[in-house]
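Example 4.3 (complexes with small molecules)
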Amino acid sequence: MSKYWNERIHKLEPYIPGEQPKDKRYVKLNTNENPYPPSPKVLQAIRNAADDQLRLYPDPNTDDLRATLAEVTGLTSEHIFVGNGSDEVLAFSFMSFFSPDRPVMFADITYSFYKVYANLCSLEANIIPLDDEFKIPVDAFCKPNGGIVIPNPNAPTGRDISLSSIRKVLDANLDSVVIIDEAYVNFGAESVVPLIKEYPNLLVVQTLSKYSSLAGIRVGFALGNPELIDGLNRLKNSINSYTIDRLALAGAKAAIEDDAYYQQVADKIITTRQKTTKILHELGFNIVPSHANFIFITHPSFNAETLFYNLKEKGILVRYFNQARISNYLRVSIGTDEEMNQFVEAIKEIIKV
Ligand SMILES: *Cc1c(COP(=O)(O)O)cnc(C)c1O
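Answer. The structure with pyridoxal-5'-phosphate bound is encoded below.
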């Protein structure tokens, strides 16, 4: 609190990011970062871009990167907006497409930033409870609303949604924008990018932070019909025209071009996820079926918050949400095989099996 804050700042309820600890080296399974390095071609592209051109502003329209994205998605550059991480793209989308007079819909258990953005934009939120298995109740999203945001797969549960379910939501909401947040789609879910040309109300948001191992350079993007993209550009150019720096542009382009490398990495992560799931199941955990690079787990006899602190003492960081319905769950990012072995060994010591 400060007398220098205006009323709007007083009213904010900011997001709390996962810890990036500096006190010691942890096995870091708390923020869904990719445990493998970026493609060597990405690192080379960033090194090559570190030259005297850095004195110049970057391209405000990110033309080169958008052309590359257009090529791999089968869309045109007019269908693409690039932002400083997909969090920025999501924030800009809330500001551009949703209005205080019509409620925005999202699930009760989902990416917690949506609530923060709704609050930031003074929007009413119509919060839809997931069912008992944390599945999306599709019909509830087919009632009147002023916009929808759904991650596929959902976070922090890891559950995916079928293309046909999303189609149903899109068909029922032709007058409002439906955002599908595909931050984790490449770890086993099905993308709805092919529906963009069919649905002018669909905005797909993706990020290079998870699949492309580039959380450190902050690049995300939106794919959608050119009217939506124009709206995002109007907003961006009213705040900051140069949101993506030269190094990030170079790295992002190289990442999009080297999908073969990242497919291999994702395959490894999926295999590790399956192995870890099997072992945790044998240890008595219930695991929500995951199509993401993390798992959401609970144990019938061990309290999740206690497990969280016990793991932290042993140098293993996972994510705990003290929130209704999920306060006995842990979200565990999938690390390397070696890291997951350390996690499993620590769990075994804590639960004494
Ligand atoms: C990580 C994450 C994002 C944000 O990604 P950035 O591009 O790093 O800002 C967006 N949505 C969901 C569901 C996420 O988990």
